[in-house]
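A quick aside before the break. I want you to see a complete sequence-to-structure record at least once, exactly as it would be stored in a machine-readable document. Don't worry about memorizing anything.
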Amino acid sequence: MRICVFDSGIGGLPFVQALNREFPFLEIDYVADDAGFPYGTKSPEMIRDMLFERLRRIRARLDPEILIISCMTAVQIGLKELQAAHRALNIIGAIPPIAEAAKESQTHRIALLSTSRTAEDSFLDYLIARDAPDSEVLRIPAQDLIEYAEQHLPFASLLSAQTMVAPYINYALEEGADRIVLASSQFILLEDAIASQLNERQAFNVQCLDPRAKVISALQKLIHYKEHAEETKFQKPRFFLAGDRGATPYYIAWSDKFNCSTPQLL
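That is the input. The structure line, written in tokens, reads:
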């Protein structure tokens, strides 16, 4: 079974890693839309057009049975339309676990780190009203963290990453949040820096949540796991770039870090 994980950049790599651990028999392709990055600053119309063009190329070149969209901005703008247009393809979107955060929170205050686009979108209004009606959700746009994670994090120290996340974590703590939802895939790459910052502030009651567990749960319903239980041979995921510039040093660094193939053009 071939699965494709699609993201605006490298934020979907932690999803690839989680899939490999849970389903070692899968053949996984990863597509980073380096030509369209960043999605969080573009108009919905532009993002929608890019998504349809990218998915057409993904199906023609890779022919996956399941597509996982790990980019939250892509999910909120294009998921429903893509599912309607490609009914023969199972498409799973990474939805921020707001409901889980609301159930776990003791203070009923949740911090949600997102892109600029996600913070303003009505889709987020819908999720909050549906999943956390009795909680206060603090929307914290952190667009600069997206670009930092994408281009600088693979060569940065933990101290540098901590310095970048500190203002956002400090704000969340000052506002009394005890759950932090990572609503952009790139933020997951900063989870070590966030955890270090929380420990430094002795905020031991605060936890971060991201969509990986929900994606795994959705896949378990589609994959007949027991039929493949003996197939444990690891297959290195293939890494593709949607642009035409070729692999940059930071894309090569990220592919090595997550044990993927050398990035190639889609």
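Two observations worth writing down. DSSP finds twelve helices and ten strands in the chain. The beta strands are 2-7, 27-32, 66-69, 90-93, 109-114, 136-141, 179-182, 207-209, 238-241, 264-265. We'll return to this after the break.
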